[in-house]
Amino acid sequence: MASKEIFFACPLCTQPLVARLAEAGQEADCPHCFKLIRLPSSSVEVIDKNRFEEPFGLRRILLEIRNVEWEKMRRKLHEARARIAELERQLDNAHGRSRASHDLEEVAAENASALTRSGRRSDGFCPSDAGALAVA
Questions:
Q1: Are 60 and 111 members of one domain?
Q2: Using an 8 Å Cβ cutoff, are 77 and 83 in contact?
Q3: Are residues 62 and 72 in the same domain?
Q4: Are residues 83 and 68 in the same domain?
Q5: Distance of alpha carbon 80 from alpha carbon 17, whole angstroms
Q6: Within this chain, do residues 80 and 46 fall inside the same structural domain, yes or no?
Q7: pLDDT, position 41
Q8: DSSP 93-135
């Protein structure tokens, strides 16, 4: 039994599509625009694959389409990588600021704990200074 196919354009994005004649009238997702479409059931060109001859220039057209699509994908990938790098830089900056503020909070907490342990600052305290204060 020869497999027959129908050739038609997506009604939403106008990209070329192929489906089996047995699937005519059913619903399917367009592989180009990813929207749900109904496959046509009448007034479509039916092709017998056993007698199909490639139209002149079809390969050139398909190569051009492939190259255009690859270029679009490459451009989107480049833009996505640039966006990821920017977001990572912003994240690093945010973490850098929070680390710096966290370090400042730690120093302030250490200073506060040094004051509360002895009731006064213990840095640079010398017992000879205490005797000098008592004499005066």
A1: yes
A2: no
A3: yes
A4: yes
A5: 29
A6: no
A7: 78
A8: HHHHHHHHHHHHHHHHHHHHHHHHHHSS--TT--HHHHHHHHH
50: pLDDT strictly greater than 90:
no
Could you count the other beta carbons within 10 Å of the beta carbon of residue 105? 10
Q: Are strands 4-9 and 16-20 parallel, antiparallel or unpaired?
A: antiparallel
Section 20-45 average pLDDT: 83
Q: Which residue has the tokens 């009238």?
A: 25
φ, ψ of residue 52 in degrees (nearest 5): -70, 135
CA-to-CA distance for 19 and 25, rounded, in angstroms?
10
What pLDDT sits at residue 82? Answer: 96
Q: Domain residues for 61?
A: 55-118
Average per-residue pLDDT for the chain: 77
Structural domain includes residue 21? yes
